[in-house]
Amino acid sequence: MCPKCTMRGSSDYVGDVVQGYLGSCYLLSGYSAVAENDDRFSNMIVNEQLNNAGLYAFNVYIRGIPKVVVVDDNVPYENRAKYPAFARQGKDNSMWVPLMEKAYAKVTGNYDMI
Length: 114
Known about the structure:
There is one protein chain. The protein is α+β, with helices and mostly antiparallel strands. It is built from three helices and four strands; from the N terminus they run ααββββα. It has helices at about 25-35, 40-45, 95-110, and strands at about 55-60, 65-70, 75-80, 85. The strands form two sheets. It has a two-stranded antiparallel sheet. The chain has a two-stranded antiparallel sheet with strand order 3-4. The longest helix is centred in the last third of the chain and has 13 residues, at about 95-110. The chain starts with about 25 loop residues before the first helix and ends in a 6-residue tail after the last helix. The relative contact order is 0.26.
């Protein structure tokens, strides 16, 4: 989908948060708050390198209990526009936002539950 993408992109992590077709603004605003602090942001991502397996792990809290959520990089994609359909990749080709949104969809059951 994005051969030049990275997990974190540049240092403007808050600017990476862009909403797509899904009404997940409440969730993405929380991601922006986490991205404002480098320590919190670094602790959220378990493996920062994009990999051939396409598997990524994130530290999350579910009802106050810390968990590691693993997702693959197969995110819903808008073919005509050539970008993810829901949370978008950052302007610097960072993929952490759509992958984190997918992790939340996994925790809640699916994208419809978001």
